[in-house]
Predict the 3D structure of the following.
Amino acid sequence: MPLNETHAPDLRSWVPSANVADSDFPIQNLPFGVFRRPGETARTGVAIGEEIFDLQAGVANGLFEGEALRAAEAAGGEDLTPLLALEPGPASALRRRLSELLRDAGPARAEAEALASRLLVRMTDAEMVLPVRVRQFSDMCVSTFHIGRFAGNDERGQPITPPVFRTLPVGYDGRASSVVISGTPVRRPNGTWLAEGATTPQFGPEPRQDYELEIGIWFGGPGNALGEPISIQNASRSIFGYCLLNDWSARGIQMWEAMLGPFLGKSLATTISPWIVTAEALAPFRAPALARPEDDPQTPRQLWCEHDQTEGGIAIVLEALISSAAMVRDGFSPHRLCQTDFRQMYWTPAQMLAHHASNGCAFAAGDLLGSGTCSGPSEDAAACLFEKLLAGPWTLPTDEVRTWLEDEDTVILRGRAEREGYVGIGFGEATGKLLPAHALHTSA
Amino acid sequence: MPLNETHAPDLRSWVPSANVADSDFPIQNLPFGVFRRPGETARTGVAIGEEIFDLQAGVANGLFEGEALRAAEAAGGEDLTPLLALEPGPASALRRRLSELLRDAGPARAEAEALASRLLVRMTDAEMVLPVRVRQFSDMCVSTFHIGRFAGNDERGQPITPPVFRTLPVGYDGRASSVVISGTPVRRPNGTWLAEGATTPQFGPEPRQDYELEIGIWFGGPGNALGEPISIQNASRSIFGYCLLNDWSARGIQMWEAMLGPFLGKSLATTISPWIVTAEALAPFRAPALARPEDDPQTPRQLWCEHDQTEGGIAIVLEALISSAAMVRDGFSPHRLCQTDFRQMYWTPAQMLAHHASNGCAFAAGDLLGSGTCSGPSEDAAACLFEKLLAGPWTLPTDEVRTWLEDEDTVILRGRAEREGYVGIGFGEATGKLLPAHALHTSA
């Protein structure tokens, strides 16, 4: 995707909080989301610093025209699906116009700044809601390091993966009704699992509750009809944007039920960050597809194209943090569980989508793909506890010794794209606090 | 579910085709569906013999009141979701009223028959469309005979199944966007599979295209919030009705990709029959839950309740038939592939739902569960080709020798509930014709 004036590193905004160093939402980002002020219906907006630009206020005040207006009007409801369903042009025009309106030097500043009190809502005055009614959620598994952590390395020093892993991006269909917005508490599930040393399973609160640090991929465009694949050439422009995604995983349930893959071990909850960081905003941070180790199978023809090989990856530094009840009580900052880079995935987002649609599976706006756990090679880059625990229990700043998640733990995901010579952009947060399991009925 | 006057075996309709022996849609059935006449928008209706009762014509002519009217008005759009989302009462009241209106003896006959030309649409004058926009589709696996066909029997004479199978109803999340209405052609997928004897996979048209004969289960009621399970006591009244379901299965793709369970091997298409046969209509055909063989694990407490044990099963005779291009050309009737009984499933529909929601997974109207392949113990009851082929290739009346499905084959599912002393009811058909795979792009 070519860079344009919206990516220029010297752009600054007249919204002061957008110019703070390391802000997630400088004027180069402009992600879309849906917010709600107390007692009002939800509205669509764009993050700028610590403010939200109210898109319908922009429409009402006549700030948009042409393709930009078409995009803003598509975002006129309580949900961004109609915006995502457009071809990429209108959203791109809207981005350019928002950049003009919000930059500190330029002809549109005066017009916008005069309306600031009508256009801008402080993030602290609003709650974020799901940006899109999730139509379908599927989850891929594309980190060799995630899989290889359990199996070790082969004689080439490469993570050992099942044969299928290097021939296609493995995935499974998940549960859309389980996708919740950052901040939603997550209930520890009851389920069927095998206690250590037991040979028959029991039903009760999941003892091995885990998180998984992932990137979420939002499908964009009019979609394909059932039976019609999406080629690798067309796949990248069918991705509207990205978010953070915590694929909460109940390992006891998952391991016992696994005959047909992940099911109830996953459908308890999937937490996403509220802002859709557009593929266009991420253009400066594109990277070549991961180089395949020598002796790996060649990239399959149906998943190979020039532009995906040269810029199909994305450099996004991801981290997961935890905050226990005791940490909150004693005033500790969240503790980092891992740090990893989305660039190290074996398959690109376009490859994930092209593979997923290769059998004719139908996609439309509202579809969300998870990348799978984004683990990297180092021990610090183990992006779930299942991997982290291979090195044994770990310790919080409060000296609490931990294995799996405990009730009242909050897991926080963060992500940020950086590149020398460009202004870095962030994803905000995907957080969730684990609530105790419901008590089982003990009466007959 | 108690029987009432709508189930009475002596009821006959003034619609003559409803009284024909072995009609799928006698007055005791009254299933809901969505139909469209050429050039019109879709409308909701109820099958009676070879006619469709137009529900909104009934509303417009003042035939309903009270709870029955509430149900008919909920079905006022192009989709039955709002009807399914109600508590069971209104749909039951509507059924009682429809039964009064359509029966040949009774006070409401004159009123309805006088309006017949406005109320009734011949099935041959309409096409059926999806009755519900499928929100989520998941598929279970609850036939010991399906699994055991591959593994053989144990020393008790019971099918050998993985340990998990007898401790909970195994399942996986599927793809809602792949669900199509009976009659929709199905495209053979391209995908990645291992040819016999090969060690590296290839990408191309699926060589082992299969069908699976299943029952579809339509969720009904207001649904549960994420994190709140549905108890086995409440599960059966959260099932609105049933349909036939062909879970088209690409075995080559499925076998190669299987690391995280079924995915692209399944999401090519899932065909359902158009009529939702209500749980209430099936009340006379309920059967006890399958008796567990001695030495099997006990029914888990969270999946056990008295009424599900005594009437959680349903006796539905199911069959799959095939019609090849040559059979059509030469005038042969469809050829039976298998005949089986839904009563032989190891887990009941209520157990499938209660298990699925046991971790707090959220359900709502629009959710569809597949039962998994409904195979029975006999060789004739192998409800997919993967099982049938264990006995070797099979032959069509045209002397065509077959293994997997071939292009232009049509697969037809039928189902019928019968019980001594009651009028049997049918499901109509779920049919699909297999189209050739798309040609691969051979250019670079």
Notes: The domain at 5-129 of chain B is CATH 2.30.30.230 (SH3 type barrels.). The mean pLDDT of chain B is 97. The radius of gyration of chain B is 22 Å.
